[in-house]
Design brief:
heterodimer; A: mainly alpha; two-stranded antiparallel ribbon; 2 strands; B: alpha/beta; eleven-stranded mixed β-sheet; 16 helices; 11 strands; Glutamyl-tRNA(Gln) amidotransferase subunit A (chain B)
Amino acid sequence: MPGITREEVAHLARLSRLELKSEELDHFAEQLNDIVDAVARVSEIAAEDVPPTSHPLPLTNVMRADEVRPSLRPDEVLAAAPAAEEQRFRVPQILGED
Amino acid sequence: MADLTRYTAAETASAIATGEVSAVEVAQAHLDRINAVDEKVHAFLHVDTDGALEAARAVDAKRAAGEELGPLAGVPLALKDVFTTKGIPTTAGSKMLEGWRPPYDATVTRRLKEAGVVILGKTNMDEFAMGSSTENSAYGPTGNPWDLSRIPGGSGGGSAAALAAFEAPLAIGTDTGGSIRQPGAVTGTVGVKPTYGSVSRYGLIAFSSSLDQGGPCARTVLDTALLHEAIAGWDPMDSTSINAPVPAVVAAARHADVKGMRVGVVKEFGGEGYQAGVMQRFNESVELLRSLGAEIVEISCPSFTYALPAYYLIAPSECSSNLARFDAMRYGLRVGDNGERSAEEVTALTREAGFGPEVKRRIMLGTYALSSGYYDAYYGSAQKVRTLISRDFDRAFGDVDVLISPTTPTTAFPIGERADDPMAMYLADLCTIPSNLAGNAAMSVPCGLAPEDNLPVGLQIIAPALADDRLYRVGAAVEAALNDKWGHPLLEEAPAL
């Protein structure tokens, strides 16, 4: 297995939406390498014919009744928001200015 | 009057029901205890004095009105800060949620309130339940009441420490890889991870959804069972909730008899890496069960040695997805919103500031394990290991009623010892992880002090899914026999705080 480089940590951080500091990159690269080395052992016994398990319960498409019921109160929900305006979440710009 | 903080939950409920004490007196005694010792222990992140006294007054009023009280009415409880509590701060041990007051109650919270349980406050934990020592809390570590310089386990170290420090007779934890059982083991308390799906996850802040399970913690097996019955059961708000009757765990805790039961000793858990005193107490427990009439069988579960690596791929993968919700838009922390930065930049700055190192490590590890070039080798293989572990359990439970092992390889280690060594920290959950991967039920019950350091050792009992009652039957038998042998419960040997 290839090792995790500083550049790869920077890429993972970008994908994970983490604005890591430069000194964190080296530290995480070293630790993630150790962890990945240790966990790569799973491939030793993961034979072709073994089906994967994603969940302990064999559930598919659990439905609830399609009934109108009360939701959370907007004022209570927005009270916990970092910023709110006109009964909406106020967020930083999501489209470029130009 | 006797010290009310020394009562069991069952004794407390009965004393309240008969009018020997009031629920307010009981709540006040525990709030006083928290005031006296929690500066040293730091089990609580938030103490809800007003809410606790109000809930206690409501129980007293019900009794005065002649209404029937539930089996835990008026009993105080410490709630892990990963369950939402309406209007009461809920942080999950993270700066990301500092000051957040949820607009709704978790199902567990709601059921506790309906049972008349008095919620004293919210307990410290590793950030988003990721850790085995509570050192990953953004709000500082919790001390183990047996030795304040040592860890109380994690992630539910606050809940376990609150029990061991007599700050509460009941506590709620969550167990994703051992976060109820491992803190129970190292603090000399009882903790149960119920069958996956039997306690609702609605309002439980998600870490790894296919593994997370809330469960009861207490100082005695019977108290743990009473709490188990209060919180378990089908919940339409959780699509992974099991619609089946809750096993009769209280009856099982009162039926402490293992005669004729077949008990399997997991061969893979022991030997190198296990502390001598832990193995000594474990081996004594095996002999104890034999002397009580259980039939002891050695069982090999060869894939269990791959459980830890599989877990550290599956849990981080699910965490990297679950924690994407912390985007600084709808609740929680927002950093760097200066009117010029984009939403995406603000999200990345907030997550950098709001998450601690272990959470960042796991998010990136999960992102790595799920990325296209590595998916089959890592996440895909880990899911296959999960199948093999379930098969080992199925085979074992075809032969025995329960499996046993030490809960943890060592007793409580010193705070700081493994803080920057993730792999060393992960080993604390070596024996507890297989049950999370398979979704079955498991308990840790105290089985003595390790001779070399006088710190508690836990015995782990594992039962098939939906046979949680067997845990209580075996746990209660071990507890009763050991209390007879020692002449008192283990916690009486804990140093006074």
